[in-house]
Amino acid sequence: MLEIKNLTKKYGRKLILDDVSIKFPKGQVSCLLGLNGVGKSTTMKAIMRLIPVNQGKITIDGVRISAKNLDQLAYVPDTPIYNLGMNTVENLEYAALFYPNFNKAKARNLMEFLKLPKEKPLKDLSKGNLARFNIIVGLCQNASYLLLDEPFSGIDVFTREEFIHALKSEFLNDGQTVIITTHEIDELQNIADYVVLLEEGRVFQTFSKAGAQAEGLRIVDKMRQLYRPEPGVRSL
Questions:
Q1: Does residue 11 register a pLDDT over 70?
Q2: Which residue segments constitute the domains of the chain, with CATH numbers given?
Q3: pLDDT (average), residues 28-33
């Protein structure tokens, strides 16, 4: 299990995360939701040790995340981090050198499945194809935890459908835990098992899809219920 305990992060005097504690269920897809600026991407970067934090700790199975266990995490940011002048195949070869557990055969299968151009440099790919490439690199690291920061940002509905299919297919390893930040609430019903709502740098509410369904609610209905406990008080 990946667990965040009492995490606080400030940029200067601005408080971004305020004593945040979250347990991400193992082997499930968890979604971090909230408006811009509530700390979703900051949480992801803190998990990956890309930024220092003011207090708190982040652990995998009770062990603090460090250089020794960081390979259990794969992080896919919302912007490309690879060589834009190289084509997709060349970048995947580079990724295989950088990530010790990278599965090249799986990458080739995903290239075919997602119909990704092989010869074009990344700089000439559409945003949808760049998103496909990022997902391939993340899925093929064979990490226990896959972190996806705004994977739907700016991509078309067909790419989203392919992405969701990949997450719910044989391309996701058994027992793999996925953590997603997104604004695309409509997509959550098909992928999320567990939802964490952030507001003003704190955890506002958490719930499971199974729990919502037991109440006869879809995920978006449960969110409306939480944000609008009384008519006219709040709105998503």
A1: yes
A2: 1-22+36-68 (3.40.50.300), 70-191 (3.40.50.300), 197-229 (no CATH)
A3: 92
